[in-house]
Amino acid sequence: MFVILVYDTAAERNPTVLMTCRRYLHRTQRSVFQGELTAAQYRELTSALSTAIDPEYDSIVTYTARSPGMIDSTTIGVHLGGPGDIL
Amino acid sequence: MFVILVYDTAAERNPTVLMTCRRYLHRTQRSVFQGELTAAQYRELTSALSTAIDPEYDSIVTYTARSPGMIDSTTIGVHLGGPGDIL
């Protein structure tokens, strides 16, 4: 599945969230990641994030589609990342 | 079409970007909007944003799909907004 992930977390938890997201996705904007995952990888990622954040304060939204071909992406202004940025 | 819009703009331009996005979409996270637009509305929105931002510094990414049914959305933690937040 194709996954877009947007996070809005407290500064002290950002490094953990970033590190977790980078294991699965590539970064396309300061707080946005995207990539293709299996259903199992997606569950691993969301499970890891659930334990990393404070659910009373932080927010992570994922958008998923069955394939990347179902979603078009357009950047206005600075293009901050792409598939080449996978770490 | 269904539109997800994520912005990362300088603080001084945030109010203009916010106001422009709110005319067309509803906010789902601090810097994320979503909603259904016609192709004409989408062009109006991206055109207005193109003139509002500094393309050397700011970044706006849109993800579009033909219908909202093609994308699933999941929130972990705080749910910051929804269709009820349309202003």
From TrEMBL, chains A, B:
Pfam families: CRISPR_Cas2 (PF09827). Its cofactor is Mg(2+). One of its GO terms (biological process) is defense response to virus. It is an enzyme of class 3 (hydrolase). The keyword Nuclease applies. One of its GO terms (molecular function) is hydrolase activity. Its EC number is 3.1.-.-. InterPro entries: CRISPR_associated_Cas2, Virulence_VapD/CRISPR_Cas2. Mg(2+) binds at residue 8. Signal peptide: none annotated. The keyword ATP-binding does not apply. Keywords: Antiviral defense, Endonuclease, Hydrolase, Magnesium, Metal-binding, Nuclease. It comes from the Bacteria. Homodimer, forms a heterotetramer with a Cas1 homodimer. Belongs to the CRISPR-associated endoribonuclease Cas2 protein family. CRISPR (clustered regularly interspaced short palindromic repeat), is an adaptive immune system that provides protection against mobile genetic elements (viruses, transposable elements and conjugative plasmids). CRISPR clusters contain sequences complementary to antecedent mobile elements and target invading nucleic acids. CRISPR clusters are transcribed and processed into CRISPR RNA (crRNA). Functions as a ssRNA-specific endoribonuclease. Involved in the integration of spacer DNA into the CRISPR cassette. This is CRISPR-associated endoribonuclease Cas2.
